[in-house]
TrEMBL record:
It comes from Blastomonas natatoria. This is Deoxyribodipyrimidine photo-lyase. Binds 1 FAD per subunit. InterPro entries: Crypto/Photolyase_FAD-like_sf, Crypto/Photolyase_N_sf, Cryptochr/Photolyase_FAD-bd, Cryptochrome/DNA_photolyase_1, DNA_photolyase_1_CS_C, DNA_photolyase_N, Rossmann-like_a/b/a_fold. It holds the Pfam family DNA_photolyase. The keyword Zinc does not apply. PROSITE patterns: DNA_PHOTOLYASES_1_1 (PS00394), DNA_PHOTOLYASES_1_2 (PS00691), PHR_CRY_ALPHA_BETA (PS51645). GO terms for biological process: nucleobase-containing compound metabolic process; response to light stimulus; response to stress. PANTHER family: CRYPTOCHROME (PTHR11455), CRYPTOCHROME CIRCADIAN CLOCK 5 ISOFORM X1 (PTHR11455:SF9).
């Protein structure tokens, strides 16, 4: 009997265009394994919203595997140890994985390689990004730090290879190793069940991802004009599916190209995802360390101070008195997702209006986003705060009230801040300035002009 091979799954929970499954299917009986590992990532273990998604995504993958005559084995513990032990136990000939670039997963891949028994190879495949992170370099072989030249260089290698179909069958081993039961992992919230709204919005899993893509294709040609309008369903909402690897970026690339029309702006956004991985490969601590010199001395307000803590809480709960900020933070809490334009506005508000260190916001998003992604989250927070490897954006202080009008956010605000629903399109962006007192809706935590001056003065301190 041919020795079995293991497919070790992480954020690659799909069968189609999944190189680890494709290679394993040809090699022999396949044992697909997911390890819930809260130890290896240390303080970066998955947040609450991601755990909700993970539960449903694993259930979906397990059902899809059964249709192929296979199973999903669930284990809990330090992933490198669990996989090495399992390889010994079943006499595996190889472990197939898709590469991941979070620093803890790179360490785990190295550790696993050392721990695997003799004769069991670790086979790492490419597939969750358009190009393997680190492979797009300047003429002198250096990795890119800035997005635009990165995009130009990556575009030279596009389109990506055509996606590969899911295997039609996966041979089963002679006997299946033991598996945990998904429900015992308690990934879903219970008391309180804050994720009630998630199920209305999302269908985690490969089928849900394919449906999202299908629905987006007819809108893709209008992406450029609609993508900044939070009141309009203008973007793809594929981010959590991409994060959990339920669909490959190559699949999305080819499908949007075939849909026709001008899709370059969308593809450029997709490349931001690759760019973020390229950044964390160069700066593994990107979620905790300012990349730009000088910001370590920035006079942030102290989150231990009770007034600052109250401001942070008001931001988290969507009670800042700025309707667009509040709508975004409430959308995040209710659905685990927020529109990109509003992510920029809410992040800028925390950092510049409230003068709170970007890392506080990064942590909140990590816990509450269903698409929370180590690379993309840190890259976008450092970009907004001006502390990152790219240009210093600190002095670009977004005006939430102007942004709200410019991007026509009235309907979005009505949806997420229902106490303001009765206000006119004109008054809803800034009820206070329009002289509208709405019972239950808070006053602004700080005026825009005052906040802007305070932020610029703080920034001047690190420049002097
Ligand atoms: C402060 C802040 C934090 C963010 N945190 C995350 C995060 O943790 N995870 C995450 O996936 N995105 C993050 N983003 C980027 C962006 O907001 C989301 O990817 C986007 O809103 C997802 O919606 P969509 O799928 O409809 O995107 P679309 O506009 O349809 O874009 C298609 C895909 O491209 C990728 N993409 C688009 N914009 C970006 C970007 N700026 N950076 C990286 N990838 C991008 C996503 O995978 C997205 O699904 C963050 C942005 C900000 C400003």
């Amino acid at each position: 009997m041919t020795r079995p091979v293991i497919v070790w799954l992480r954020r690659d929970l799909r069968l189609a265009d999944q190189a680890a499954f494709a290679a394993a299917a040809k090699a022999g009986p396949v044992v697909p394994v997911y390890v819930l590992d809260d130890e290896t990532p240390k303080h970066r273990k998955m947040g609450g919203a991601s755990r909700w998604w993970l539960h449903h995504s694993l259930a979906s993958l397990a059902a899809d595997l059964e249709k192929l005559g296979s199973r999903l084995i669930l284990r809990r513990g330090v992933a490198a140890d669990v996989i090495a032990d399992l390889a010994k136990q079943i006499g595996a000939a190889a472990v197939h994985v898709l590469r991941h670039y979070e620093p803890w997963w790179r360490n785990a891949e190295r550790a696993l390689k050392e721990r695997l028994p003799e004769g069991c190879a670790l086979e790492c495949h490419h597939g969750n990004y358009l190009m393997p992170p680190g492979s797009v370099t300047t003429g002198s072989g250096q990795p890119y730090k800035i997005y635009t030249p990165f995009w130009r260089a990556l575009a030279q290698h596009m389109p990506p290879p055509e996606p590969v179909s899911a295997p039609e069958k996966l041979a089963a081993p002679e006997s299946w190793p033991e598996s945990d039961t998904l429900g015992d992992w308690a990934l879903l919230p219970t008391r309180p069940d804050w994720a009630k709204g998630f199920a209305e919005e999302w269908m985690p899993g490969e089928k849900g991802a394919a449906e999202r893509l299908e629905a987006f294709l007819s809108r893709a040609p209008h992406y450029e004009e609609c993508r900044n309008l939070p009141s309009v369903e203008g973007t793809s909402r594929l981010s959590p599916h991409l994060h959990f690897g339920e669909i490959s970026p190559a699949t999305i690339w080819h499908a949007t190209m075939e849909a026709g029309g001008s899709v370059e702006t969308f593809l450029k956004e997709l490349v931001w995802r690759d760019y973020a991985q390229n950044v964390i490969l160069q700066y593994p601590d990107y979620a905790k360390a300012n990349a730009r010199d000088g910001f370590d001395k920035f006079p942030w307000r102290d989150p231990a101070d009770k007034d600052v803590a109250a401001d942070i809480r008001a931001w988290q709960q969507g009670r800042t008195g700025y309707p667009l900020v509040d709508a975004g933070m409430r959308q995040l809490w209710a659905t685990g997702w927020m529109h990109n334009r509003v992510r920029m506005v809410t992040a800028s508000f925390l950092i510049k209006h409230l003068l709170v260190d970007w890392r506080e916001g990064e942590k909140w998003f990590w816990d509450t986003l269903v698409d929370a992604d180590y690379g993309s989250n840190a890259t976008n927070w450092q970009w907004t705060s001006g502390t990152g490897v790219d240009s210093n954006m600190f002095v670009r202080i977004m005006a939430p009230l102007t942004q709200s009008e410019k991007f026509d956010a009235a309907a979005y605000i009505r949806q997420w801040v229902p106490e303001l629903a009765g206000l006119s399109d004109k008054a809803i962006h800034d009820p206070e300035a329009a002289g509208k007192y709405v019972k239950g809706y808070p006053k602004k935590l700080i005026g825009h002009k005052e906040a802007r001056e305070r932020a610029l003065a703080a920034h001047a301190k690190i420049k002097s």
